[in-house]
């Protein structure tokens, strides 16, 4: 019976055949231990010399790392195995012999592994991280589908910046200038005026010359937008969504979390509601913690976010940032014109901002004023202004960075391991 490693629990004590690659192996003379993987999981195959043909024994003995094989054997339950199962191998048939596989069981430097990323993703650790990424994506669709959101796909090529910044990748669109999208948000606002609740999930690009462990040049964003919703209501959606993601990973990625030695107690504590702290109070907290140089009106860097997060066990919302350091479209606080109705959600354990969100300006005159203050042109943003001209409503939205969320939930230090093929400041290969 042909099967996969992920399905061996349904074939205990049965003979099965699995198409697999040899991940590693060792031998004690008359017993060979084959570490096998097939893309759905890992399993140990045990071959006893006296129980198999000489041909099968030699075939297994001569296998090289990452050679592809058909392996036949009896599925056994085994409590010592990480997966709970083992394969008593009765036959091995070589499909293709791998020669001089470059990533051996010894230690390798990061740059070497990144140069061989197309092969590195076969390893247990990288496999676990990317499976957690897949679960977060799956759970994202489930959460928004169950809460009456419609998925809308914004364009990747745009004629202007979403946030009025210069960190854009420029290209030519026939005779016009175009840019790779840094956010789908403005288009999602248009979609929310048509469908009420929408979300997008797609790649975004930032031409920031940053080398920190939290930054990628190309990354993926989940960007919901909600009509008839104020800022506080949006915060509730955000904390419910993040709580749902955490619980989904805990429910469906136990083996992966174990592979990564993730401290589950830290994730099990992540349940809505989340604490909130104003930007003003965050400044005070930072000064109390020894950050004497930080002044009101300055944005927070990674050390500041980490210090703030250390005061809480759950993710924390930092609310009401100064208007001058936030995007033009954010709605000012009606009770205080110098701050806006926005929040950044800071993950615990030093993982930094995973969500940025705000209530959007819905008043046409105010948005036109903000256009002037930011030097934006009507030509580029005429369509965006028209959303306030034809049936404007209070609306809010946010964006969650997928890779930072994967890094946090899997306990990985650098976001470069959380995307299959990372694009970094000095890396466009493979």
UniProtKB/TrEMBL annotation:
List the subcellular locations: Cytoplasm
UniProt record, GO biological process: asparaginyl-tRNA aminoacylation
Catalysed reaction equations from the record: tRNA(Asn) + L-asparagine + ATP = L-asparaginyl-tRNA(Asn) + AMP + diphosphate + H(+)
Q: Which UniProt keywords apply?
A: Aminoacyl-tRNA synthetase, ATP-binding, Cytoplasm, Ligase, Nucleotide-binding, Protein biosynthesis
Kindly state one GO CC term assigned in the UniProt record.
cytoplasm
- What EC number(s) does its UniProt record assign? 6.1.1.22
Tell me the superkingdom of the source: Bacteria
InterPro entries listed in its UniProt record: Aa-tRNA-synt_II, aa-tRNA-synth_II, aa-tRNA-synth_II/BPL/LPL, Asn-tRNA-ligase, Asp/Asn-tRNA-synth_IIb, NA-bd_OB-fold, NA-bd_OB_tRNA
Subunit structure of this entry? Homodimer.
**Family stated for the protein in its record:** Belongs to the class-II aminoacyl-tRNA synthetase family.
Q: What is this protein called?
A: Asparagine--tRNA ligase
């Amino acid at each position: 019976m042909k099967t996969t490693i992920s399905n061996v629990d349904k074939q205990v004590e049965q003979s099965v055949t699995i198409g697999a690659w040899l991940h590693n192996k060792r031998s004690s003379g008359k017993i060979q231990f084959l570490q096998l993987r097939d893309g759905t999981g890992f399993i140990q195959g045990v071959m006893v010399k006296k129980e198999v043909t000489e041909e099968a024994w030699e075939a297994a003995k001569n296998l090289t790392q990452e050679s592809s094989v058909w392996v036949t054997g009896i599925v056994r339950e085994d409590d010592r195995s990480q997966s709970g199962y083992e394969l008593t191998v009765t036959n091995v048939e070589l499909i293709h012999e791998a020669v001089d596989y470059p990533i051996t069981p010894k230690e390798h430097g990061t740059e070497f592994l990144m140069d061989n990323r197309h092969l590195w993703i076969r390893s247990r650790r990288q496999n676990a991280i990317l499976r957690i990424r897949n679960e977060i994506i799956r759970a994202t669709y489930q959460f928004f589908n169950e809460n009456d959101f419609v998925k809308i796909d914004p364009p990747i090529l745009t004629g202007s910046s979403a946030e009025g910044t210069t960190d854009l990748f420029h290209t030519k669109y026939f005779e016009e200038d175009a840019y790779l999208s840094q956010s789908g948000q403005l288009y999602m606002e248009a979609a929310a005026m048509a469908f009420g609740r929408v979300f997008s999930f797609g790649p975004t690009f930032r031409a920031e010359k940053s080398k920190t462990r939290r930054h990628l040049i190309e990354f993926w964003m989940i960007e919901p937008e909600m009509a008839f919703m104020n800022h506080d209501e949006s915060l509730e959606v955000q904390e419910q969504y993040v709580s749902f993601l955490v619980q989904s990973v805990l429910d469906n990625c136990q083996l992966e979390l174990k592979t990564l030695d993730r401290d589950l107690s830290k994730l099990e504590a992540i349940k809505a509601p989340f604490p909130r702290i104003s930007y003003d109070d965050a400044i005070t907290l930072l000064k109390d913690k020894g950050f004497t140089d930080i002044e009101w009106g300055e944005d927070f860097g990674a050390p500041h976010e980490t210090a703030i997060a250390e005061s809480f066990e759950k993710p924390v919302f930092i609310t009401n940032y100064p208007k001058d350091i936030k995007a033009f479209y954010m709605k000012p606080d009606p009770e205080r014109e110098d701050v806006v109705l926005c929040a950044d959600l800071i993950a615990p354990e030093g993982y930094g901002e995973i969500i940025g969100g705000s209530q959007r300006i819905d008043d046409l005159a105010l948005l036109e004023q903000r256009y002037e203050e930011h030097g934006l042109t009507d030509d580029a943003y005429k369509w965006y202004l028209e959303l306030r001209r034809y049936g404007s409503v209070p609306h809010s939205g946010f964006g969650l960075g997928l890779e930072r969320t994967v890094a946090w939930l899997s306990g990985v230090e650098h976001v470069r391991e959380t995307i299959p093929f990372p694009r970094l400041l000095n890396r466009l290969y493979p």
